[in-house]
What we know:
This protein is of the alpha/beta class. The protein has helices at 3-6, 12-18, 47-58, 78-91, 102-111, 128-137, 182-193, 212-215, 252-262, 268-278, 282-302, 320-326, 349-366, 396-401, 418-437; strands spanning 95-99, 119-123, 145-148, 164-170, 203-207, 225-229, 243-247, 306-310, 339-344, 370-372, 381-384, 409-412. It has 2 domains: 73-280, 3-Layer(aba) Sandwich (Aspartate Aminotransferase, domain 2), CATH 3.40.640.10; 282-435, Aspartate Aminotransferase, domain 1. Helix 8 (212-215) links the parallel strand 5 (203-207) and strand 6 (225-229). The site of pyridoxal-5'-phosphate has 14 residues, from helix 5.
Amino acid sequence: MDKNDNRKNYSLSTRLLYGKMQTQAWDYTHHVVPPITMSSTFRLNSPQRGAEGFSAIGQRYPDDPGEQTYVYGRMGEPNNDMLSDVLAEAEGKECAVTYATGMAAINAAVLFSLQATSEVISHKTVYGCTYSFFTNWMPRMGHKVTFCDLSNPKSFVEHVTDRTRLLYLESPANPTLELLDLEAIMAEVKKINASRGEDDKILTVMDNTFATPFGQNPAKYGVDLIVHSLTKALSGFGTVLGGAVVTDKKYKNGLTLFRKDFGGSLCPSTAWNILAHGVSTLSLRLPKQQANAMKVAEYLEAHPDVERVYYPGLKSFPQYDIAQRMLRDFNGNFAPGFMLYFTLKAEDGDASKVRGEKMMTYVADNAYAITLAVSLGQIRTLIEHPGSMTHASYSAEEQIKIGMHPGGIRLAIGIEEADDIIKDLDEALIATREFANT
Ligand SMILES: *Cc1c(COP(=O)(O)O)cnc(C)c1O
C-alpha cells in the first residue's frame, strides 16, 4: 500500500495537512510544502494532447472525468487541483472545482445545470450578494427564483414545478445564524426526485461557508453541491479571496467548463496560499475561535444592556436541538462556530439601531482587539452592522421578514485571548450606555 492509499487510516485534520501527498498535479520529489506553480500555459508534447485537454472538459457529464490534461491556466492547473483534492477530502466528497471568489463559485453551482426556463427555489435568508444575484440577475436570464422559509423543511414542496431544477440552502444563515435541518429537507428532496429522470432531478446546493467543513458535513445528508467562500475560515488569515464547489465526479466537468467559459479562475499562487496556510491549519484555528465565541456569547447574554444573543452554542438558541445534530466537528464534538449576532436593549428598532451604531463607532475609534470590517472566519475579530452593510441588498422590511433586527450586530470571532475581546466589548457597552443616558 502506498502513502496515498494508506491516508484513510489517518485523521481528517492530518489529511488536511498532507493532502494526497503525491498526485499527477504534484510530482515534485524534493518539496515538503508543495511549490507555487506560476505557469499560464502548459507544454504539450503533441497537438493531440492539446485537443484531448479541450475535448475532455467539453463533455459535460462524463461518468469519470479522470485526470485533467493541463493546457491553459483558466482551464485548470496544479495548485488549484491540489487545493481541490484537499477540499474534497474535508467535505467527504469526490472532487472540488475552485473559483476566483465565493460568488464565482455560487454562480457556477447555480447556473451550470440550468436550462433556459429552469426555476430555482431558495431559502429566504442567504448571503447578501447571493440574494442580489437571485433578485437582480437570475430573472433577467429567464430564471424564476422563489424564496421560502426552510425552517419548515416541507415549505419548498408547494413551489416545486416541472421546471424546478435547483434548491438553494444556506446554514447557518447570515447573519441570524438560523439553522436548517438538512436531514429533514433532504428527505423531502429525495421523495420528489424518486419519480424524476436523471436530467430533471432537483439538485441541492448548500453554502457551508459559516460552519466550514470542520463544523458541518452536508455530504452526509446527500447535498449535491457544497459551496464555500474560501475567503473566510478556509483561508483563515484574511489575505486572499477564493471560492470552491465541492461535489461528485459527475458534475466536475460541467463546473470546470463553466469556469473555463465564464473565466472566474483562481490564481495559482492564491490557491497555493489557501492550501499551504489555510486549509492545513483549519482544525487548529477553529476550536480556539469557537471557544472564544462561547465565552463572548456567555458574557453578552449576561450583560444588562444586551437584549438578545444568537449563538448556536447557547442553550437559549431557538434551534439548539438542530445545532446539536448538524454542527459537529471532525471528531463528532459539538461545533457551534465562531459567528454570533446580538441586539442591544432599546425602546424600539430605530433606537436599537442608533445604539448599535454608537457602539460600533466606539469600537472603530477605541478597540484594539476588535475591528470594524465586513468578512469573517479570519484570525482577527471583526464586528459589523449587517442591516446597513453586508445585507443592504435586502430592504428594511425584507430584513425584518428574514428575522434580522434593525440594530443587530454581527461578530466574527478570531484567535485573540477571549478576555481581550470581552474587555473591548465591555468598554464599548459602557460608552454606549453613557451616550444613551445623555
Ligand atoms: C463571503 C461569503 C460569500 C461570498 O464569498 P466571496 O469570496 O466574498 O465572493 C458567500 N457566502 C457566504 C456565507 C459568505 O460569508
